[in-house]
TrEMBL record:
Pfam families the record matches: FAA_hydrolase
Matching Gene3D superfamilies: Fumarylacetoacetase-like, C-terminal domain
SUPFAM superfamilies: FAH (SSF56529)
Domain Fumarylacetoacetase-like C-terminal: 29-231
Protein name: Fumarylacetoacetase
UniProt xrefs under InterPro entries: Fumarylacetoacetase-like_C (IPR011234), Fumarylacetoacetase_C_sf (IPR036663)
MF (Gene Ontology): acetylpyruvate hydrolase activity
Organism for this UniProt entry: Zobellella denitrificans
Domain of life of the source: Bacteria
Length: 233
């Protein structure tokens, strides 16, 4: 007797690949916290790379939506923030890789948004609880088309910006990442067997802030692409 599903299984989360009809099956979403000094400072903390390690939170793949989406203002928050991010797409398995080997795991790059219920995140932080309610919720990860590494080369610098309704709110450079991409991949691979389909949101620059119903968000990573989101009226 063959087993039967009790209800339909959720479809695989897929991401667009620029310039092709191929799709990138998303396995996991890792996010690096506080990876720009100026953003850490605006969140009231400091980061000492000499004595600290990167830290991460995750988002469920079902939270991912494509660039260009229009979504409703999320529930149970009154302080809904954008965070512009440079995203690395993993295309090769690796465990305990070195920094020198890390770029071999990269399939490509994209522009992304880590949307955040800031009031819920800060409440959790103040009480020493996990950030899940503030970070991992429906439609909280936005992703532009992934550009293959073969087309961009290794991306380790470039302007990263975000505007809301045409007004620039975030403006920095990937060279200001505290932990760069090879360092992040090497460190993360000590704790996880990285797999094709993993996405790494590498952190946001300073300038994060709230959006409201009716706002239009447009972010960009030089040499990689754009990401766009509208909050429905």
């Amino acid at each position: 007797m063959s087993a039967k599903l009790l209800f339909p299984a959720k479809e695989q989360t897929l991401a667009a690949v620029a310039g092709t009809d191929a799709l990138f099956p998303v396995h996991r979403i890792f996010c690096v916290g506080r990876n720009y000094h100026a953003h850490a400072a605006e969140m009231g903390v400091s980061v000492d790379k000499s004595s600290q390690e990167p830290f991460y939170f995750t988002k469920h793949p079902s939270s991912l939506i494509p660039s260009g989406s229009e979504i409703a203002y999320p529930p149970q928050t009154a302080n809904y923030h954008y965070e512009m991010e440079f995203v690395v797409a993993i295309g090769k398995a690796g465990f305990e890789v070195s920094e020198a080997e890390a770029d071999e795991l990269v399939f490509g790059y994209a522009a992304g948004l880590d949307m955040t219920r800031r009031d819920l995140q800060l409440k959790a932080r103040e009480t020493g609880r996990p950030w899940d309610l503030g970070k991992d919720f429906e439609e909280s990860a936005v992703l532009g088309p992934i550009v293959r590494k073969e087309e961009t080369g290794i991306v380790d610098s470039g302007v990263i910006t975000l505007s809301v309704n045409g007004e620039v709110r975030q403006n920095s450079d990937l060279t200001k990442l505290i932990w760069n991409v090879p360092e992040i991949i090497a460190h993360l691979s000590r704790f996880y067997h990285l797999q094709p389909g993993d996405l790494i949101y590498t952190g946001t620059p300073d300038g994060v802030g709230p959006v409201v119903a009716g706002d239009h968000i447009l972010g960009s990573v030089a040499g990689v692409g754009d990401v766009e989101l509208r909050i429905a009226k």
